[in-house]
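Just wondering, does anyone understand what follows?

——
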Amino acid sequence: MADIKPTATVAKSITSVQPKKTSNAIAWIAPLACIVLGYILWRFVIGANSNFTKPDLKGGFWPDHDGPKGGLPRMYLGGIIVPILIGCFLTVLTFVIERLLTVAKASGSGNIAEFIRKVQFHLANKEVDKAIAECDKQKGAVGNVMKGGLRKYREMISNTELTTEQKVLNIQKEVEEATALELPMLEKNLVFLSTIASVATLLGLLGTVLGMIKSFSALGDSGGGEAAQKLSQGISEALYNTALGIGTSAIAIIMYNVFTTKIDAITYGIDESGFTLTQSFAANYK
């Protein structure tokens, strides 16, 4: 009868990293609220009766004002695309502020490279608790990932059932799980900036084209020098759409690149922290 060799069983490692319960209501509330606010600004502030020499006193959704008294009221005559573009601009500002706060929190306090050097120093002296204390001081995404890995690091030191290679793999897995929870929070809502960067320019061109169609249509219904004057005025008003679209798109592109650069720096710090933990354990606890 063949001998049956007992198989060693290893207890399943339970991760100390818990998913963060966060709401992203701003993702669908902010764009809608900004477009509504954009219409209010266009209709009741820029398009106020006092801003025109010939206001349409009947009011309504889109009053037919004429005779703007300044540059800003001329924007009103750019058409119904203008409040949408104002809404896009306000949406960009909203998500820029939201991402600034999130990325600043994720960056934590102090320099990331200096933080990793301190952790490396404590691990080299086998002072895991002091390394965890450094993570509490850092309070950023890199600190959170490092702290999760250090807890598993400390657990693996006292583990006598697993080989060194298996212990390193457990630490690496813990770091990967912590990273998977942190990175989505950093990249969330950036899609709005990248989308508006493309859409705002197209909306601006659409508003300009609609304004040009209206201007040339008016030119065909009249003649003489007065018609040429109205045509040039209509083109000027239509170009407000292009200016708003390009300006909004430029801000969205610049801020998107700023945020991706900051996120890349944090991601690099997270990768370096994982490498630090695995290499330190493999060297100190063979």
Confidence is low (pLDDT under 50) at residues 1-13. Residues 94-284 form one domain. Residues 186 and 266 are 9 Å apart (CA to CA). The radius of gyration is 30 Å.
